[in-house]
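Methods — Computational structure assignment.
A single polypeptide chain was analysed. Its primary sequence is given first, followed by the predicted tertiary structure written as structure tokens.
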Amino acid sequence: MAKSKSGSKTMVLLTLAVLVVLFSLFLVTRMSGKVDQTEALKNQPSLENQPTMGNPSAGINIVEFGDYKCPSCKAWGEQVFPQLKKEYMDTGKAKFSYINVLFHGEESKLGALAAESVFAQDNDAYWKFHKQLFDTQPRENHDAPWITVDVLLNIAKAYAPQVDAKKVGDDIKNQITMPQVNIDEQLVKTYNIQQTPSLMINGVMVKNPFDYNEITSIINKR
């Protein structure tokens, strides 16, 4: 009888010990999650001198790392971005910035140089130019050369008439906006961007930028 009581007491103590350990792990996990979120906010890209739309005071920062030559970026801009803009940027809940990625070589660079030149003159004109450049990307055989200086200048003249197209041409030719493009390239390296588009929300990278539910879930947790 004594042995039975002793065994029961031991089981109770072991059960309590296990519960204490599990509760401790739960607390550590919760605390770790909070630290990770804080660190993410601290380590998100600086948006200074980056093209940005939406409420400047919004607490939600959405950043796309994209490439004008990238067909997936074109698809994301058509399939996901319009709803994101309507629900978050247009309502003042979030701001959105674009960072150039040069994964497709010289054409990516040309597009980035031109876009940065337009942005230097007018932020609103930049977004019109930005959209039209993606719209101009061919749906088939997109790997063939299509981003040329003439194409870029024609887009600037037609869709961003408030900017000086001649200056855009000079900026491309003389690579005047290369310092801004270099800043973006450094951010791509810093954040180890491996694919385009890549989407970051308040420093947290979205696993699948085409999954709108994942995007809204991250936003709602901020």
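Note: The longest helix spans residues 2-43.
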